[in-house]
């Protein structure tokens, strides 16, 4: 928060600009671009590093990828080896039982060991 104020104090009062054929980048536009860099970099890093969610993968029939992601999650959460994950098969079913009626907008899957 204070970093943005410091950057603004340095950049915005400047009188220089960058002229491009379609736009003139004044100091305030450059300040906005600099302040957006952490968000853009974080978004790109997240998109490249994080796997798809198991629910998304199951909904699209990617059972092997689902099992791989769940094994990795198991290893990270327990500190155990991925090979110790006891689930080896998936059974997909829609939310039809009365217990699951409040999840009407979501697909559910059952993991069978």
Question: Explain this structure to me?
Answer:
The structure is a single chain. By secondary structure, this protein is α+β, with helices and mostly antiparallel strands. The protein has 2 domains: 48 residues, no CATH class; 59 residues, no CATH class. The protein contains 4 helices and 4 strands. The strands form 2 sheets. The chain has a two-stranded antiparallel ribbon. It has a two-stranded antiparallel sheet with strand order 3-4. The longest helix has 23 residues. The radius of gyration is 24 Å and the shape is elongated.
How many DSSP H or I helices? 4
What is the helix fraction of residues, given as a range?
Answer: 40-55%
State the domain count.
2
In whole angstroms, how far apart are the ends? 49 Å
Query: The biggest beta sheet, please?
Result: 2 strands, antiparallel
Rounded average pLDDT? 78
User: What is the C-alpha radius of gyration, as a whole number of Å?
Assistant: 24 Å
Provide the spatial order of strands within the biggest beta sheet: 1-2
Low-confidence stretches: 95-107
Residue share in β-strands: 5-15%
Number of strands: 4
The secondary-structure element order is HEEHHHEE
InterPro entries: MFS_sugar_transport-like, MFS_trans_sf
Membrane topology: Multi-pass membrane protein
Subcellular location: Membrane
Keywords: Membrane, Transmembrane, Transmembrane helix, Transport
Summarize the SSE layout with pairings.
Blueprint: H1 2-11, E1 18-19, E2 24-25, H2 27-49, H3 54-59, H4 63-78, E3 89-93, E4 108-112
Helix pairs in contact: 1-2
